[in-house]
# Entry
Amino acid sequence: MADLRTDVVGARPFVYRKKRLGCGAVGLTELAEEFGTPLYVYSADQIRYRFGLFQAAFAGRAHTICYAVKANSSLAILRLLGEAGAGFDIVSGGELERVRRASKAALKRVVFSGVGKQVWEIDAALKAGILLFNVESEAELSVLAERAEEMGVRARFALRVNPDVFAETHPYISTGLREHKFGIAIGEARAIYKKAKRMKWLDAAGVSVHIGSQIRMVEPFGAALERVLGLVGELRTDGHDIRYVDAGGGLGIDYGASDASDGEGVTAEEQVRRYAAALEGALGGEGARLLLEPGRFLVAQAGALVSRVLVVKKNGAKTFVITDAGMNDLIRPSLYQAHHEIVPVTQGAGEDAVVDVVGPVCESGDFFARDRSMGRVKAGDLLAVLDAGAYGMSLSSNYNTRGRAAEVLVDGDSYGLVRRRESLKEMLGAEILA
Ligand SMILES: *Cc1c(COP(=O)(O)O)cnc(C)c1O
# Structure
């Protein structure tokens, strides 16, 4: 079982007090009773703490931490990070609108990533005066130049280069190899910057890289950045004024699986320190502003998905614990075979049993854990799926016509609903019956 230490900040924010699990001082049983289940619960303190670790680790250098909105795009979380001074890494016009609503002052700290940007999205970002477009193809660069001319503004851009560095992670979230759809081969970038120099509506302001997600070893980040800085040197030789180096996101967390390849048991603080050391080793005396795009690392462990057990069912030798949360609420186990610790909200005395924890969705892939040894549970009990703050709610869907979960943000001793449970009316509202 996960190490559920008793200090809120610096460890997991979900802790037992008198055998009852709370987000800090706020009991999850009480939250489940007040707001129903499935329910996402987030710790504001934990998110601020982790953001602070990044700020401290890079304090010696001009930097902006652009939180990757797609990890968890809750307006309440965006606002709290915006207030802490974060910028944002967005991948759509929808995410741009989220930043606008949550933290207008942060629009000037937005970087816009993504392999397929639409014209309306580019226009909205130009109008908002974002910091930087991370451009992923020559064709996209032409569109950006056209739109910038049309709107009469110069577009600051960086090419997202593909450094061809292998980072050990799940193949679906590895992005830094030549065979991936992301970025521009680093060897081809210089020529594209040269062409861009002739376009007066384009300002080649930086170079970007992002090698993937849930990367636990820090060496690939350093290796990728070294290649990027080699290119930066060449670009300066060519007369480009490169002011930003964007090292992307991707730093992984310890989900507590026994097969974690590296960094297991390392504190968040130590992990960020190692990451910073790897980047600093590559950066040396580089004077450009460092941009970072962490997503998962800031929010994953700050969140838990609380669900109620509907039925405990035996099929032959197997025992299935069926919860009211399903793969539409948290798809990581189904999509990436991801491991999540699952703990009872009230600790019992019973001995452990080996069970599958599954949802009610009509798919065999709808599971949270398989052959997991855990304390005996019965219908009506509450379970918490831990480390669910990243790529949980943001990847949720209405599959099986299930409304999306509610979300609560706990801040110190207080808490508040930050998203209502989606109603049937909201779910069906856009559909047309002639
Ligand atoms: C998804 C993504 C991130 C964030 O990745 P994490 O693993 O959540 O840190 C950062 N930058 C880009 C371009 C991304 O696509």
